[in-house]
Amino acid sequence: MTVSKLVFVPLSYTGWGALEHLIPETEKHSPQKILVVTDPMLEKIGLTKQVTEPLRGAGYDVTLYTGVVPEPPIAVGEKLAEYTRSGGFDMVIGLGGGSALDLAKVASAMAVHEGDVADYLNLSGTKKITKKGLPMILIPTTSGTGSEVTNIAVLSLETTKDVVTHDYLLADAAIVDPVLTVSVPATVTAATGIDALTHAVEAYVSVNASPATDALALQAIRLIAGSLRRAVKNGEDELARTDMSLGSYMAGLAFFNAGVAGVHALAYPLGGQFHIAHGDSNAVLLPYVMGYIRKSCMARMAGILEALGGNSAYLSDEEASLRCVEELVRIVSDVGIPQTLEGFDVPESALESLTADAVKQKRLLARSPMELTEDDIRKIYQSTFDGIVTEPQ
After folding, report:
1. Worst-scoring range by mean pLDDT, 6-15, 102-111, 114-123, 259-268?
2. DSSP letter (8 states) at residue 69
């Protein structure tokens, strides 16, 4: 029997109004100067005040850092690391989507480590994270990345992505309050929602899956499948936003422990080469990757079909897995995300360079239930371009 390790964030608060735990959690660390890393749009719409005003009202010195950009390149991480080191901060709060939360992790870790952020990258770095960074609270404002409960910070390179990863990048507390997601536009709700769904699906079929991650992944799929369309249609639907928020959180826990695989490996080059948002990259690839690897995990896909709201009771695993792929195609279509690479203006001539970069994502590819060769990856990109789900010949 395989023994698997299951790691949770030490403290997590979820549910409508969970932000009330911000001050008590902050007090535990007795900070003098707090850095809040966030997206400039959140400052523009006033959402950051829901965090900064209570903190300042409690007497804390708070600095708002709004240098976050989508799919942050390594240069943005380097700039933030230097800003954090020179600013004398003793606590970091990440507020926003995955980019803001990942950069908050970089700020926390690099405040106590020497060298450049590039030195600590998984694929090319030569240094290791060796100690815990500044105390850190992570507060997501989207329901998608699960970054608040993972130990990974993703950064964009010239044509692909890489990560800084270590358990010291885990937050001291995660506060997951769906109230903060109400103002998220429908397009972002859709992309981040499919991102969360992808986390759960890939965790469930991962070679590192365990009974504990299975429970998290399946419940995440149920919550997301039952609420994403409603959240996209009406962002003020309190129940839909609550279920999406919890589903994303649970998917984050599932994939942090079991890992993600082929969809993410192929998505990273799309973000790196064409600056397609991570959620959209996962969304366009999800049905095609799962369709291609279907025969390696048919029983698992039957379970996913049930969680998506389908009925596999009278179907063979073969039939259920095919129905599962059809349902994945349907949900991506229903929330308005383009279903082909061509729909994102990716030319067919780019498929070779995408393949070359995806092959390098060995950390992710190793978790796939089907070994994906360079030729397999090329065929998946081609099918995603053509809009036709294919299987190995």
Report:
1. 6-15
2. -
Q: For 3-60, give the DSSP string.
A: -------S-EEESTTGGGGHHHHHHTT--SEEEEEE-HHHHHTTTTHHHHHHHHHTT-
19: phi then psi, degrees, rounded to nearest 5: -65, -15
State the Cα–Cα distance between residues 138 and 11, nearest whole angstrom.
11
Q: Which residue has the tokens 């229903």?
A: 334
d(CA 189, CA 311): 27
Name the CATH topology of 12-181.
Rossmann fold (3.40.50)
Contact 303, 281 (CB under 8 A): no
From the list 304, 28, 285, the residue with the least C-alpha distance to 171 is 28
Domains 12-181 and 186-386 share a fold: no
How far apart are alpha carbons 271 and 155 in whole angstroms? 10
In a 3-state reduction of DSSP, which class is residue 100?
Answer: helix
Residue of 40, 34, 20, 7 lying closest to 176 (CA atoms)? 20
Does position 236 have pLDDT exceeding 50, yes or no?
Answer: yes
Average pLDDT over residues 65-76: 93
pLDDT class of 1 with cuts at 50, 70, 90: very low
C-alpha 288, offset from chain centre? 19
Q: Measured in Å, how far apart are the chain's first and last C-alpha atoms?
A: 33
The C-alpha angle 151, 239, 212, rounded to 5 degrees, equals 40
Q: In this model, does residue 287 exceed pLDDT 90?
A: yes
What's the order of all strands across the beta sheet hosting 173-176? 12-14, 173-176, 136-140, 91-96, 33-38, 61-65
* Beta partners for residue 139, in sequence order: 95
Distance CA 371, CA 265 (A): 12
Does residue 9 register a pLDDT over 70?
no
Superfamily name and number for 186-386: Dehydroquinate synthase-like - alpha domain (1.20.1090.10)
Domain ranges of the chain: 12-181, 186-386
Contacts of 219 (CB under 8 A, 6+ apart): 247, 250, 307
Give the whole-angstrom CA distance, residue 302 versus residue 323: 8
